[in-house]
Specification:
The chain is built from 13 helices and 19 strands. By secondary structure, the protein is an alpha/beta fold. It is globular, with a radius of gyration of 23 Å. The two termini are 31 Å apart.
Length: 446
């Protein structure tokens, strides 16, 4: 009996990369190629890469070197480099890795089947760039996250922040038509998903192509769809929020009280050097508007420390902003230069040891704030969507509407993944909650 062909996908980076991997998996499964968790079993290996973090290219080439070793015993194994580093490297990747079979950029994900066929016919393929016409088959997506259906609404970015490579790896902004978005959301709700997450590098800059609707109109239409229990969206750009968008966040109970709103720095001088297009006070004013609209709103953010020219006074202003806003979560990173961006040309490089020390001070401050906020949740009840099994026997994990991780005992009847149950918070830590289940679970999709 012939062994079924298998594929293995390793995914690095953001939610958009996660969805791209689901799209690629779906295309391969349509051809009868099955997923495997063991890379040694694979007939096709895809590395879906991210170029945002430090030394991204070195890490990619190192991993591709590991994959090359598998070809020694399996000559027909295909290895593909996908994602943002694929777009960035292009032909160079084929030159540097002789055993690499194809390179597939983020805007060409829908062409995977064709690219594989071309390689099987003998061509080493580079499919990069940003074509106007793109293939997107909502039926060819392997939606393996039982609790959440992700929907891309806008691709690319036009902001050109001086530290960010995304405009070069994902291209200019390109919004999908509202009808296509609503159709995909309806498809996911009919399938049984209760939570939908709208995706985009600048998700709140969505505009109807050739029309007048903006993200406020889209939020309103999606939130009103029957069967939608929880709606999220990521990543929002502070400068793109309008009063109408803020109003929608407060209007619909099923819009989750959680928002990721990257600030990057608390210093106006650093924000100008970053090219962010807003000031500290404008950011704080937006936070105030959002919290007046939604009093239970939990905010998370991104912060870069050690940006070129960041003085101790600038960093102190960032710490003060963190104290003032009291974020639920802070994702903080040391600045690392990315190829093709403007920031490496700025003066005032910060020594690594200073950036490290600042990062640790920021983490220490935020950990204390998070613990205080989470302790304030003890005794409160939350509707939890179950996302997995706990490390301890008889426990499960889930996400509250405010996107916090909560652990709880399953009781006599475990909750199916993607199902919902009510959990009362009994213990709080800086990074998670522990609670007690109060009611029988709602059914998840099959």
């Amino acid at each position: 009996m012939t062994r079924p062909r298998r594929f293995y996908i390793e995914t690095w980076g953001c939610q958009m990369n996660e969805l791209d991997s689901q799209r690629m998996a779906g295309q391969l499964m349509q051809q009868g190629i099955l997923p495997t968790r063991e890379v040694e079993e694979a007939d096709i290996i895809l590395l879906n890469s991210c170029s945002v973090r430090e030394k991204a290219e070195q890490k990619v080439y190192s991993r591709l070197g590991e994959y090359r070793l598998l070809k020694r015993g399996k000559g027909d194994l295909l290895i593909g480099l996908c994602g943002c580093v694929a777009q960035q490297e292009g032909e160079r990747a084929l030159e540097r890795v002789p055993d690499l079979d194809f390179v597939l950029g983020p805007a060409r994900v829908g062409e995977l089947q064709d690219v594989v066929a071309r390689r099987r016919a003998g061509e080493r393929v580079v499919a990069t760039g940003f074509p106007e016409s793109r293939q997107y088959d909502i039926d060819a997506v392997s939606r393996h996250g039982e609790h959440k259906g992700m929907v891309t609404i806008i691709e690319g970015c036009n902001k050109n922040c001086t530290f960010c490579i995304v405009p070069k790896t994902r291209g200019p902004e390109r919004s999908r038509p509202m009808a296509d978005i609503l159709g995909e959301v309806r498809h996911l709700l009919d399938y049984g998903f209760q939570e939908i997450e709208l995706l985009g590098q600048t998700v709140n800059h969505w505009r109807e192509p050739g029309g007048d609707w903006d993200f406020a109109d889209l939020l309103d239409r999606v939130a009103r769809m029957p069967g939608l229990r929880r709606l999220r969206f990521i990543t929002s750009y502070p400068r793109d929020f309008t009063p109408r968008m803020v109003e929608q966040v407060g209007r619909h109970a099923n819009i989750a009280p959680y928002l990721h709103l990257p600030v990057q720095s608390g210093s106006d001088r650093v924000l100008r050097r970053m090219g962010r297009g807003y000031t500290r006070n404008e950011y704080l004013d937006l936070v105030g508007q959002l919290r007046r609209a939604r009093t239970d709103l939990a905010l998370s953010t991104d912060i870069i420390v050690g940006f070129p020219g960041e003085a101790e006074e600038d960093f102190a202003q960032t710490l003060e902003l963190v104290r003032e806003v009291r974020f639920a979560v802070v994702y903080a990173f040391k600045y690392s230069p990315r190829p093709g961006t403007a920031a490496p040309r700025l003066d005032g490089a910060i020594p690594a040891e200073i950036a490290d020390e600042r990062l640790q001070r920021l983490f220490a401050l935020q950990e204390g704030i998070q613990r205080e906020i989470n302790v304030g949740l003890v005794g409160k009840d939350f509707e939890v969507i179950v996302t997995g099994w706990g490390k301890q026997p008889g426990t499960q994990t889930g996400r509250t509407p405010c996107h916090r991780v909560i652990h709880f005992e399953t009781g006599p009847e475990p909750v199916s993944l993607g199902g919902t149950t009510t959990v009362r918070v009994e213990t709080a830590f800086a990074y998670s909650l522990v609670g007690r289940r109060l009611e029988a679970p709602a059914l998840a999709h099959s």
